[in-house]
Amino acid sequence: MVVPVQYYLALSVALFALGVIGVLIRRNALVIYMSIEMMLNAVNLAFIGFADYFKAVDGQMFVFFVLTVAAAEVAVGLALIVAIFRNRGDVYVDNLNILKW
Amino acid sequence: MQILFFILGAVALISGGLVVFQKHPLRSALWLIVNFFAVAGIYLLAHAEFIAAIQVIVYAGAIMVLFLFVIMLMNIRQPEADPKIPFIGRKLAGIILAGFTGLILIYGVTKATLTAGKEMAPGLGNTESIARSLFTDYLLPFEVTSVLLLVAIVGAVVLAKSKLK
User: Fold this and answer.
1) Residue among B46, B71, B130 whose CB faces A48 most closely
2) CA distance readout (Å), B120 to A54, B7, B45, B50, B142
3) Domain range for residue A73?
4) Does B9 contact A69 at a Cβ distance shorter than 8 Å?
5) Which value does ipTM take for this structure?
6) Which of B20, B73, B130, B139 has the greatest number of C-beta atoms within 10 Å?
């Protein structure tokens, strides 16, 4: 028995909303980053669900590229977080208010 | 098949919730690995074997190792201290905003009409059809991706090396 595409989308929406909650309520930059990864994963899940539904490989190609971009983003982002940690001694985003006027 | 989907979906949701609501970032990272594995299992159910494999290798392997490495490098022992602004108000605002986003998404999903698409090329395995597509239709994005990765490597090295003064 095949899984309907609506189930994939529902799970994707739920995971994405969880990621948004994480970004909005957490203060540790690392956990915010993990929540962003979770949101990327939720979007990938929607792509895969549609690729299965339409029996087309294009959705999986997009997931492939999203994975690559996510890997690059994590490398740069974690380097940034390490630089911030060296500079300031913590990674809490509400202490990073230099740009606030 | 559907039972498997429900089990894996429940695992993904519970571990995702634990990522968000766990106090220590290390525990969040470990639960995120569980989440990635559950999602990889769902990819397998959706006949995306290649994507499931690289999900485990790239996400659960490489990216999470990077995360754990950085967390342990920073050696954050204490949990998050109380912020200056009352936390409960922001928590509430965050949950309301996220719920609103979810409602908009659910509205879009339920309003969308779905039509059946073209058939996948017969007689091809998943990895084979992806490779065929990758090196024909998606050749230019594939090559641009390599440039992106090069830029990311150089950028990460420069950022991690220099002392931001």
Assistant:
1) B46
2) 8, 28, 17, 15, 21
3) 5-95
4) no
5) 0.90
6) B20
